[in-house]
Structure to design on (149 residues):
């Protein structure tokens, strides 16, 4: 798989790969989200050991949310990110599963960032268009730091 080969090449060069996984709207509507995302995670991480996993980031990026302005609800995003962590736990064990960063990347913005980032299995955001608007980006950063105060 191309994603797996690219992740391994990046790790070999000391670069942190951000491995994006996600489902189409049709797959979501057919209730195939977790099956499809689990397959993507397993394929992307094939042959990557636990030490290398620590240097990887996984991003849940629902295809149906890219550039559409649509976003998963916090509950939907949490469910998938929790599922990603469960797949990693089955492959690597509990400690590596807790240590890996899982981001949400489906149109996170100033309005939804706090609710998304409050979820236990969403460790951060992969920010697209909102990063081009300084006030919006500042609001996302503030939401990410809500526990730091």
């Amino acid at each position: 798989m191309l994603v797996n080969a690219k992740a391994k090449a990046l790790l070999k060069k000391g670069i942190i790969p951000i491995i994006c996984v996600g489902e189409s709207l049709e797959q979501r509507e057919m209730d195939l989200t977790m099956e499809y995302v689990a397959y993507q995670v397993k394929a992307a991480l094939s042959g990557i050991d636990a030490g290398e996993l620590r240097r990887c980031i996984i991003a849940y990026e629902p295809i149906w949310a890219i550039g559409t302005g649509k976003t998963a609800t916090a509950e939907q995003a949490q469910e998938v990110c929790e599922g990603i962590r469960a797949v990693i736990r089955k492959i690597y064990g509990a400690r590596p599963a807790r240590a890996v960063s899982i981001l949400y990347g489906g149109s996170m913005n100033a309005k939804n960032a706090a609710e998304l980032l409050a979820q236990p299995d969403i460790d951060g955001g992969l920010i697209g268009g909102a990063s081009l608007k300084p006030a919006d980006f500042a609001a996302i950063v503030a939401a990410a730091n809500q526990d730091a105060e």
Summary: The first strand starts at residue 18 and ends at 21.
